[in-house]
């Protein structure tokens, strides 16, 4: 089915955001693993997998709309040097993603593409979950102190 060209371009921009997020989360996840923060490693790895699903769903939709998925474009990566920096950078990326998905949903509505609207809403809900996770980590770091927070992230630390 031939899709709206402007919408396909926007879906490709979202795809670049997702591919960037996959890489940023993977690097952060592996840095946490290297420091022995197993719980953070797993939590961030799970988010990388979520972003992979988003990229997959966008690629499916772009192909269905007879567009060409642009998979070789990445945005600048923002790798944190500390756990707090990582979580803060990831939260900023999620806030930007939430804005971008809301804008794209508005456009999909305008061009009467309800199935794309539904897909984008499903992804948006997950991005809100990611943003909320990052906010919780920052709250915990602020309330219990960085050292206590990080102690809870090691293998065998109580849940
Ligand atoms: Fe995503
Ligand atoms: Fe996300």
Give a short summary of the structure.
By secondary structure, the protein is mainly α.
Task: Explain what you see.
The chain has five helices and no strands. The chain has 159 residues and is mainly α. The protein has one domain (5-151): Ferritin (Up-down Bundle). The longest helix has 31 residues, at 5-35. The protein is elongated, with a radius of gyration of 17 Å. The mean pLDDT is 97. The chain binds fe (ii) ion (2 copies).
By CATH reckoning, the class would read Mainly Alpha
Low-confidence runs of at least 5 consecutive residues: none
SSE order, as H and E? HHHHH
Structural class: mainly alpha
Shape: elongated
- Distance, first to last CA: 48 Å
- Under CATH, the topology is which? Ferritin
What radius of gyration results from the CA coordinates? 17 Å
- Share of helix among residues? over 70%
**Cofactors, ions and other ligands in the entry:** fe (ii) ion
Mean of residue pLDDT values: 97
Instruction: Output the number of helix runs.
Output: 5
Fill in the keyword field for this structure:
159 residues; mainly alpha; Ferritin; 77% helix; elongated
Produce the secondary structure layout.
Elements lengths: L4 H31 L2 H27 L18 H28 L3 H31 L1 H6 L8
Helix pairs in contact: 1-2, 1-3, 2-4, 3-4
Bound molecules: fe (ii) ion (FE2) (2 copies).
